[in-house]
Amino acid sequence: KRGITMSQLRRVYRFACQHSRRWGHEKASNMKTLDLYDLCHWLIKPATRDFDCSLVELMADGQQKPDWFVSHWWGELIVDFFRCLSAHIFLRGLPDN
Q: Is the dihedral of CA 58, 60, 66, 67 positive or negative?
């Protein structure tokens, strides 16, 4: 039960926006060019490596049962991924949590 909420994903996105320039790669200087592979390489794996867990396990206070399954491509741009998720939530009148 490791569903991640939209508010948690927004925290990840905000962190990436604020810190991506520090990742020391030319591509990371522009959020419009970063994809989910990049997010995984520069943020998710380093954050979870020492704990041997998923990102949501670091962020959540306990189990979070998912209501929806989202299939994605790791090569998708981060901004496009969040636009799609935001549209899904808006169109269905879902809460961020």
A: negative
**Which residue's entry shows tokens 């989202």?**
70
- Global pTM reads 0.86
The number of beta carbons lying within 10 Å of the beta carbon of residue 46 is 11
- ∠ CA 51-55-61, nearest 5°, is 90
pLDDT per position as a tens digit, 35-89: 999 999 999 999 999 999 999 999 999 999 999 999 999 999 999 999 999 999 9
Residue 1 to residue 3: CA distance in whole angstroms: 6
DSSP-derived 3-state class of residue 51: helix
Q: How far is CA 61 from CA 2, 8, 56, 57, in A?
A: 11, 12, 9, 8
Q: 11 and 96 in contact (C-beta within 8 Å)?
A: no
